[in-house]
Design a protein that fits this description.
The complex is a heterodimer of chains A (about 290) and B (about 230). Chain A is α+β, with helices and mostly antiparallel strands and about 290 residues long. Chain A has a single domain, classed as Aminohydrolase, N-terminal nucleophile (Ntn) domain (Glutamine Phosphoribosylpyrophosphate, subunit 1, domain 1, 4-Layer Sandwich). Helix content of chain A is about 35%, strand content about 25%. Chain A contains nine helices and 13 strands. In chain A, the strands form three sheets. In chain A, strands 1, 6, 7, 8, 9 and 10 form a six-stranded antiparallel β-sheet that branches. Chain A has a five-stranded antiparallel β-sheet with strand order 11-2-3-12-13, covered by helices on one side. Chain A has a two-stranded antiparallel ribbon with strand order 4-5. In chain A, a hairpin with a 4-residue loop joins strand 8 and strand 9. In chain A, helix 7 packs antiparallel against helix 8. The relative contact order of chain A is 0.15. With about 230 residues, chain B is an alpha+beta fold. Chain B has one domain: 4-Layer Sandwich (Glutamine Phosphoribosylpyrophosphate, subunit 1, domain 1). Chain B has six helices and ten strands. Chain B has a five-stranded antiparallel β-sheet. In chain B, strands 3-4-5-6-7 form a five-stranded antiparallel β-sheet. In chain B, strand 5 and strand 6 form a beta hairpin. In chain B, helix 4 crosses helix 5. The longest helix of chain B has 21 residues. Chain B is globular and about 70 Å long. The N and C termini of chain B lie far apart (about 70 Å). Classes of the chains: A alpha+beta (about 290), B alpha+beta (about 230). At the A-B interface, helix 2 and helix 4 of A face strand 3, helix 2 and helix 3 of B.
Chain lengths: ~290, ~230
């Protein structure tokens, strides 16, 4: 039996198989999931395992009672289908209690060529989950040589939300909204989640976050089947405007600073960012119409 | 208990090297060649699903020759290493140099301590962006690492292919079409037969692409280039 030369990870045991492996610098691992790889070999890097890792290392962890410390929260994000795919959009405000923590935060992320996600909840863990999900999908694609199916990506995200459940009890909720273009069905698809990782497909539109209900109300009134891109974008931006009107945690278009909600289009052409100039023009028309009436 | 026969370290290493070389020589060659927009990787590979060339990260690609199961293991380990570095630090911190060193360490250790050395030869290439130079690293079964310029060849009869490429080298990097044609004639000359485009596995690292620079060329793309 050879002596271990290098420790494959900070948490490996003295008789670790990987350290007995000549590839100890590149630890042996089965499976194509980056998430599982982190869990097994680098638990200190995996979101929501921080307290467990620290406890295992003998460091007392007191994350406090839920709600006893301020955490920046992300707020209204929405997705709606249109003729050639789906649109995903979100406001830019993060709040910490009654304070604004950030005016320009990005809540809509491009995940891969055909999917995007938007987040609501505690900003730090949300952004971390988006980054991990991006790496996860790319990792799978490179190892296997093919992309995961749209359904497979949505399920994987559900498992990541489920893994975050311990953090929910600490008040750190991460709630994603996932939009993917299904190349087999040739349509955009919207998935919502609950904190236990439950995954539910939405047929037309959905919105989450503190202003989610207000945005849903607007979309319910203005949404029609088979909208074209421009009309769908207008409905989405109007819903965000109304949500900002009703909800303190949601930021509307900031005409003084020039900060506007962000939107992405998910179609068979991939993920396209809606340029800020286009969002600004749509808001200017919308506001001008409201002034007149 | 009878004593095992004494084998001198020199003899043992020589035997292992011979064994590994024999395994690698059985396979076909793979070429990495700099062209005007990046690096083209071309392999004589009749299988369309068992790849010899693969993406590792934004600007980095991998090519392996020799025993499939062994270089496939190395390829996956490399992707994990790269994705981990990129996740932990930043995408731009993933470099071919670090990865090649990791490969070199692992192959070196396996060669000196394992009974059976790995029968592989690998290439780690990185396309330079924003005026940086391309990097081509060739790593052998014993962990020895070479920093190559303008082209590199691995696999069986690599010396003959290298010879051809050296003779036909141009001072300026060729276009993709010329570069690929040069790779094909080098491979054909060594194989002494025509290689149809569906038996050619080609991928490029194109510095003009947004984000991930790696792209596989399908046999339709290749035929289109050659017409």
């Amino acid at each position: 039996m050879r002596k271990p030369r290098l420790r494959c990870s900070k948490n490996c045991q003295p008789d670790c198989d990987d350290c007995m492996n000549p590839m100890s610098f590149l630890p042996h691992h089965d499976g194509s999931s980056f998430f599982d790889f982190l869990t097994q070999h680098h638990p200190e890097l995996r979101p929501s395992l921080y307290d467990i890792t620290m406890q295992r290392a003998g460091v007392p962890v007191d994350l406090g009672r839920p709600g006893t410390f301020p955490v920046p929260h992300g707020t209204t994000v929405l997705a709606l289908k249109y003729r050639d795919g789906a649109i995903i959009a979100g406001d830019r405000r993060a709040t910490e209690g009654f304070q604004i923590a950030d005016r320009r935060i990005e809540k809509v992320f491009r995940i891969d060529e055909y999917s995007a996600m938007a987040i609501a909840g505690a900003a730090g863990p949300c952004i971390e989950m988006a980054k991990l999900f991006q790496t996860e999908l790319e990792h799978y694609e490179k190892l296997e040589g093919v992309q995961l199916s749209c359904e497979g990506k949505a399920n994987k995200l559900g498992q990541m939300v489920k893994a975050n459940l311990p953090m929910v009890f600490q008040g750190l909720v991460v709630m994603p909204l996932y939009v993917g273009y299904d190349l087999k069905r040739k349509e955009g698809r919207i998935f919502k989640y609950d904190i236990t990782g439950g995954r539910y497909e939405e047929s037309d539109h959905h919105s989450i976050g503190s202003g989610g209900k207000d945005a849903r109300n607007t979309m319910r009134e203005h949404y029609r089947l088979g909208l074209d891109e421009e009309a769908a974008l207008r409905v989405g931006l109007l819903a965000l405007y109304n949500a900002a009107d009703e909800d303190v945690g949601t930021g509307g278009p900031d005409l003084v600073r020039g900060i506007y909600p962000t939107a992405k289009i998910v179609s068979d052409a991939g993920i396209t960012d809606v340029p800020e100039s286009r969002v600004r023009a749509l808001y200017e028309t919308m506001i001008a119409e409201r002034r007149r009436s | 208990m009878p004593l095992p026969y004494y084998v001198s370290p020199e003899q043992m290493m020589q035997d292992k090297a011979e064994y590994a070389k024999k395994g690698i020589a059985k396979g076909r060659s793979i070429i990495a060649l700099e062209y005007v927009d990046g690096i083209v990787l071309a392999a004589d590979n009749p299988s369309s699903s068992l790849h010899k060339v693969s993406e590792v990260y934004d600007r980095i690609a991998f090519a392996g020759a020799g025993k499939y199961s062994e270089f496939e293991h190395l390829r996956k380990a490399g992707i994990r290493h790269a994705d981990l570095t990129g996740y932990m630090y930043s995408r731009e911190d993933v470099s071919a140099r670090t990865l090649s060193n990791a490969y070199s360490q692992s192959l070196g250790t396996a060669f000196s301590t394992d009974v059976k050395p790995l029968e592989v030869e690998i290439l780690v290439v990185q396309v330079g962006v924003n005026g940086q130079a391309n990097e081509i690293f060739r790593i052998s079964f014993d962990g020895s690492i070479a920093d190559e310029k303008s082209f590199a060849v691995i696999g069986g009869r690599s010396e003959a292919v290298q010879q051809y490429l050296r003779e036909h080298a141009t001072p300026q990097p060729p276009t993709l079409k010329d570069g690929l044609r040069r790779c094909l004639s080098a491979l054909e000359q060594v194989a002494t037969q025509k290689i149809p485009s569906e038996n050619l596995e080609v991928a490029v690292l194109d510095r003009n692409r947004q984000g991930r620079k790696f792209r596989r060329l399908t046999s339709a793309d290749i035929s289109l280039l050659f017409t």
